[in-house]
Structures are given as structure tokens and as C-alpha cells.
Write a structure and sequence with these properties.
- Chain B: Keywords: Membrane, Signal, Transmembrane, Transmembrane helix.
- The complex is a heterodimer of chains A (412) and B (186).
- Chain A is mainly α.
- Chain A folds into two domains: 169 residues, no CATH class; 223 residues, Arp2/3 complex 21 kDa subunit ARPC3 (Orthogonal Bundle), CATH 1.10.1760.
- In chain A, 68% of the residues lie in helices and 5% in strands.
- Chain A contains eleven helices and seven strands.
- In chain A, helix 5 packs antiparallel against helix 6 and helix 7 runs antiparallel to helix 9.
- The longest helix of chain A is centred in the first third of the chain and has 42 residues.
- Chain A starts with 16 loop residues before the first helix and ends with a helix.
- Chain B has 186 residues and is of the alpha+beta class.
- Helix content of chain B is 37%, strand content 33%.
- In chain B, the strands form two sheets. A five-stranded antiparallel beta sheet of chain B has the order 1-2-3-7-6, with no helix packed on it. A four-stranded antiparallel beta sheet of chain B has the order 5-4-8-9, with no helix packed on it.
- The radius of gyration of chain B is 30 Å and the shape is flat.
- Classes of the chains: A mainly alpha (412), B alpha+beta (186).
- At the A-B interface, helix 3, helix 4 and helix 11 of A face strand 5 and helix 2 of B.
Chain lengths: 412, 186
């Protein structure tokens, strides 16, 4: 995306101050109303994604237009069309030299379109997801209904969804940055403005999205020991967003708040999804894949975010100490990496315990049944696995640092 | 010259009209044949002898097709359902659809169905009537579009990951630039 350097809004010598204020306020209203609408679509898609995963398990994919697919694709289409509308409208306003729509508040795309960065990224993600839909259906037609996350066009759809959600964080973050720069003091909830809460909610949705597919991560086999890799996306994702939310809001406590928001998501998901499957099956007179295996509320999945709570508390505590010392909760890069590596340990430790009844794959290390394992070999595998997981935690923290700062500063 | 060109043009027009007419007739003929059964199997479903008519043979994945059940004894008032059952090696689930009376005076029943995955499937007909319940099954092999090479599919499917990698690098450099300019200003 090239960044144009020449376009600038005419200054107040040409346009009366009142007009400038009005148009600026219109611009803010347009972007903020769109942001909250996008958040609504995101929550809808999030429910659809988990519903789809469970539909596959309990009912089976009988056609493309299953109820969860309908929910997912109305979300993707709605968000995509909204992003497209905003991009086109902002391009029009940019070309008309509307105050507030210039190179400081938009990015250039293909040298023709000029739109806020978040909406552009989001539109691209939604487009990718829409393109992947018929291709994914085609793949199912060829290879069956149970091809899971690791199919090419599932990956494409999932990546598109992730890009779209990151776009949403940019949308909320840029508006929050603009709001901070204005003289008006906004209303605060839990010490955060509504737009900052939007950032936290969107990040919570992204983490919930990671929870949708984390158990599909592959199992690596070394000798007679199988190693689950599902903690890696959890560790990297959690550390990334815990540090990013802290840096982008500069508020101590937001890492813990993020985990509570995530828990709210998982509870709502568990309340909705089993009920939705039972209702849809009843209405459509469909059989369950395994008669008698009917979905119900599962407390262990609903409370899974508790596994991340200690890490969040550690990060917030350290940020609190840092703020008292330096007046800023930001850590140096080296400290961030160390925190990322160490804060991944509680996640690694608690997640298998919480998931113990939820899935037989909960234990990270699964030795082959009936074959004795050498303690030295097991010890080596555990040590190496923990080091890799800590590396993922450090990587997540490093990305959280980068993106957190950009989301703090970016007004585009 | 004109004497040659004019009859040639007339001949061309005539040929073109013939071509249009022929293709139109061919299309009409194919549409007519579409209303007929593409495959008929006569089977016994318990006490009932029935003809199972498929409107497409082979059925194609995700394309709707009709199954019509015509009992040999037209006076029987039958009801029931058809179940698309995945055959050996096919990854799918049972897909039941209720049969509805056609009202053709032959006691026929009909269901519009689709099959989502290619491969071997059984079409199981379960009937209920005055002589009790009965079940029959016929086998079909469902066709699918030609397969894309897996490497190509993965290339297309994983292409957005390149975007994410590029984006991370871009944003990292952007942040470094911002930090440098802030440091210079300070």
C-alpha cells in the first residue's frame, strides 16, 4: 500500500471553522458507527465459527448452507460490504477534498483508493474468506466432510478471517488515537474509553477465534511419544494480545480485563452453540452422527480462559511496577521477551488440566500405550518442548510490543 | 463479383440459420429427455415391488436430483423416506429426506435430494404401507468436478499467509521508523 504525500485538506482560511468541525464530526461518526457495526458482525461470525466446528462433530456437514455456515457467511458478507462501502465513500470524500479525509487519516491503495487502513485490511480479509468459500466446498466434494483445519482452503478462509479481525483492531485503535488527541474528555468505563473497550473486545474475539481451532493443531511423534502442539497458538496468541492491549491502551489491568472478556465470550459460546445445534437438528429433523451423543453446556470449555489468568496477572503486576518506576507501563524489548517466555509457563501448565475431561488429547505428552518410556528420553522431550513453547511466548510478546505501539499511535 | 458474393452470402445465411435451428432442436430434445428418468432400478422393498427412478445418473456432488419411487401396485398408499448413505470409503453422513406423493394416479412418491461428497453411496428407500414396512437399497457412484493438484491448492490456500508475513515485517519497520524519528525529535 503506497502512501501518498501530496494530498492535504484545505485549511481554515478557505473553509469556515464551524464547517470544519461539522465535517470532522461526520467523519468520526461514520467511522465509529461502522466500527461498532463491524464488531457486531464479528461476534456473529465468532458464534458461527464455533457452531460450525461443533456441527461437524455432532451432526456432520450435509451441505454448504448449513445453519452455522449461513451465520458465518452473512457475517463475512456484511463486514466485507460495509468495509467496501466505507472504502468507496472515503475515496470519494478524499477526492472531493473533504476536511478530515486526507493523507493523515487514510492510506492509498493501488494509487486510486484512499481509505482508513483498518477498513482496507478488513475488506481484504473478508474478500479472501469469500473467495475461499466455494473452493472449500469443492475440496469437501472431493475429499469428504471431515477434512478439518489443515485443508488448503480452510486455511485460506481462516487466514482471511484473521486478517479481517486485525483490520478491526486498526479501525478501533485509530479512532481511539484520534479521540486521545482531541480536547474533549470522553466517558470512561473500567478506566477505558468506549473505543478502547472496542479494542479489548476485538482482541478478545481474536483469542476466541484461536480457541476455535487450537485443538486441531498437529500431533508430533518422536519415537513412541506423541506431542500435542495445541499450546503453541495459545501461548503465542495470548502473549501477543495481552502485551498489545497493555501497550495500545497504556492502562495497567487491561491484560487481565482481556482474559475476562475472553471468558465472557467462551461462556456465551457454550450457552449458545449446544442449544443452537439441538434446535436446528430438531427443526430440520436431522439425525446426530452418533445417536445419543447430543451437545450440552461444558463448563471446562467455558472456563478455559482461567488457564491464561495467572499469566495476565503477572503481566499486569509487572506493568504496575514499571509504571510506578518510570511513569509508563512499557517494558524494554529484552524485558518483554523474558516476560513473554516466562508468562507462557502457566498457560502450558494449566490448559491441559482444565481440558482433561473435554478431550482425550488434553495431555501435551502422550506416550504410546503399553510401551515403557525411558525417563531420560521423556525428560529431554519435555525440556525441549517447554523451551519451544517459551520461544513462541517470546515471539508473541515481541509481536505484541510492535503491534501495540502501532495501534497506540496510528491515526489512519 | 457481386454475382458471386450475393449467392455466397445467401448460402452463409442459410447455413447459419440451419445451425441455429439444429442447436435449438438439440437443446429442446435434451430438455425433454431431462424430465425422464436417467436410471431405473426395480427392487423389492420388503413386501413392495418398486421402481426407483433417478433423474441423473451419475448424480453430481451438490447438484439437486429427483428420486421417484413408483410402486408396481398403484392402489397402495405408501409413505416413507429415502436415506443417502455413504458407501465404503466415502466420508459422509446419512442424509434422510421424506418422500412426498406425486399425485400421478400411480401412487408414485418423490424426493429431491443432493449428495455432498463424491464416491460410493447407497440410496436406501424405507417404505411404510398396508402390508407393513420395507426397505430397499441401490448403489450409486457420485461424480465430482475434476481434482485440482494438491500443490496448487496449497499454493492458493496459503498465499494469504505471505501477506501476513509481509505485513508483520512492514509494521515492524514502520514502528522502527517512528521510534527513530521520535528519538531524533527528542
Amino acid at each position: 500500500m503506497a502512501q501518498s504525500k501530496v494530498h492535504a485538506t484545505p485549511q481554515s482560511t478557505e473553509i469556515p471553522a464551524r464547517t470544519l468541525t461539522t465535517t470532522h464530526s461526520q467523519e468520526r461518526t461514520l467511522r465509529r458507527v461502522s466500527a461498532w457495526l463491524l464488531l457486531f458482525f464479528l461476534l456473529q461470525g465468532e458464534l458461527g465459527a464455533v457452531w460450525d466446528r461443533e456441527w461437524h462433530a455432532y451432526v456432520g456437514r450435509d451441505q454448504f448452507w448449513t445453519p452455522p455456515h449461513t451465520l458465518i457467511y452473512t457475517c463475512v458478507s456484511g463486514a466485507g460490504l460495509l468495509a467496501l462501502a466505507v472504502v468507496l465513500w472515503e475515496t470519494f470524500r478524499y477526492r472531493r477534498h473533504t476536511p478530515g479525509v486526507d493523507d493523515t487519516s487514510t492510506v492509498a491503495i493501488f494509487r486510486f483508493f484512499h481509505a482508513p487502513l483498518g477498513f482496507s485490511v478488513l475488506g481484504f480479509g473478508a474478500l479472501l474468506s469469500l473467495i475461499s468459500a466455494p473452493l472449500d466446498n469443492y475440496w469437501h466434494e472431493l475429499y469428504g466432510i471431515d477434512i478439518a483445519l489443515w485443508a488448503p482452503f480452510h486455511m485460506m478462509g481462516v487466514t482471511g478471517g484473521l486478517i479481517g479481525m486485525l483490520g478491526m483492531v486498526y479501525v478501533f485503535a485509530s479512532e481511539a488515537a484520534i479521540e486521545r488527541a482531541s480536547t474533549r474528555e470522553p466517558r470512561r468505563y473500567f478506566g477505558l474509553t468506549a473505543l478502547e473497550l472496542g479494542i479489548v473486545m476485538t482482541m478478545g474475539s481474536i483469542l476466541n477465534y484461536a480457541l476455535t481451532g487450537f485443538l486441531q493443531f498437529p500431533i508430533i511423534t518422536i519415537g513412541t511419544i506423541h506431542i500435542d502442539t495445541y499450546p503453541l497458538p495459545l501461548v503465542a496468541g495470548c502473549l501477543l494480545f495481552m502485551l498489545a492491549v497493555l501497550r495500545s491502551t497504556q492502562k495497567v489491568g487491561t491484560a487481565t480485563l482481556l482474559i475476562f472478556v475472553l471468558m465472557l465470550h467462551t461462556i456465551v459460546v457454550e450457552l449458545f452453540v449446544p442449544w443452537a445445534i439441538r434446535t436446528a437438528v430438531d427443526v430440520q429433523h436431522m439425525p446426530y452422527r452418533q445417536p445419543g451423543l447430543i451437545p450440552h453446556f461444558q463448563l471446562d470449555y467455558a472456563l478455559l480462559p482461567i488457564a491464561f489468568l495467572l499469566s495476565a496477572l503477572i503481566i499486569d503486576f509487572l506493568a504496575y511496577r514499571q509504571q510506578r518506576k518510570t511513569d509508563s507501563p512499557n517494558f524494554s524489548m529484552r524485558t518483554t521477551l523474558i516476560i513473554g517466555a516466562l508468562a507462557s509457563l502457566p498457560i502450558l501448565l494449566f490448559t491441559p488440566f482444565i481440558l482433561l475431561k473435554y478431550t482425550p488429547y488434553a495431555p501435551i505428552f502422550l506416550p504410546e500405550k503399553g510401551i515403557p518410556v525411558e525417563p531420560v528420553q521423556m525428560g529431554m522431550i519435555v525440556v525441549v518442548s517447554v523451551i519451544i513453547a517459551m520461544g513462541f511466548g517470546a515471539l508473541g510478546a515481541w509481536l505484541g510490543d510492535d503491534f501495540g505501539d502501532i495501534w497506540r499511535w496510528s491515526k489512519r | 463479383m457481386d454475382k458471386i458474393l450475393r449467392p455466397l452470402a445467401l448460402l452463409c445465411m442459410l447455413g447459419f440459420s440451419m445451425l441455429l435451428l439444429t442447436s435449438g432442436m438439440a437443446r429442446a430434445a435434451s430438455q425433454d429427455s431431462g424430465t425422464q428418468a436417467a436410471r431405473i432400478d426395480t427392487v423389492s422393498a420388503g413386501p413392495y415391488i418398486i421402481a426407483v427412478n433417478l433423474s441423473k445418473d451419475p448424480p453430481i456432488t451438490d447438484e439437486q436430483f429427483d428420486i421417484t419411487i413408483v410402486p408396481r401396485d398403484a392402489s397402495l398408499k405408501l409413505n416413507g423416506k429415502v436415506i443417502m448413505q455413504p458407501g465404503p470409503g466415502t466420508n459422509g453422513i446419512n442424509l434422510p429426506t421424506n418422500l412426498t406423493p406425486v399425485g400421478d394416479g400411480k401412487g408414485s412418491l418423490k424426493a429431491s435430494v443432493h449428495i455432498p461428497v463424491q464416491g460410493a453411496w447407497n440410496i436406501v428407500t424405507q417404505l411404510d404401507g398396508p402390508k407393513g414396512a420395507g426397505q430397499a437399497s441401490i448403489q450409486v457412484v457420485v461424480g465430482a468436478p475434476g481434482a485440482m493438484a494438491p500443490w496448487l491448492a496449497w499454493l492458493i490456500g496459503s498465499s494469504p499467509l505471505v501477506f501476513i508475513a509481509f505485513w508483520i515485517i512492514h509494521q515492524h519497520r514502520y514502528r522502527q521508523r517512528l521510534l527513530t524519528s521520535r528519538a531524533n525529535m527528542a
